[in-house]
Design goal:
It is built from three helices and no strands. The protein has helices spanning about 5-30, 40-55, 55-69. The relative contact order is 0.06.
Length: about 70
């Protein structure tokens, strides 16, 4: 009668299903637009820019100039 729930297994399964559905949606939209994997390229560029901008030497000079003002 009572059914036990395995939250971890159910959460992982749902996460895989939703993640796959979103990935497929983005691939299909990009393919229809004629630019396959464009969304993933843009998102990767944003992440790369963010990671590089935190350690870029020019950023350090800008921070020092702001502190002097």
């Amino acid at each position: 009668m009572w059914r036990t729930h395995q939250s971890l297994r159910e959460g992982l399964t749902l996460g895989l299903i939703v993640g796959t559905a979103i990935w497929l949606w983005l691939v299909i939209i990009d393919a229809v637009a004629g630019q396959p994997f464009r969304t993933f390229h843009v998102l990767g560029g944003i992440l790369t820019f963010f990671m590089l901008s935190r350690t870029h030497p020019l950023l350090e000079e800008f921070k020092e100039a702001e502190q002097e003002e």
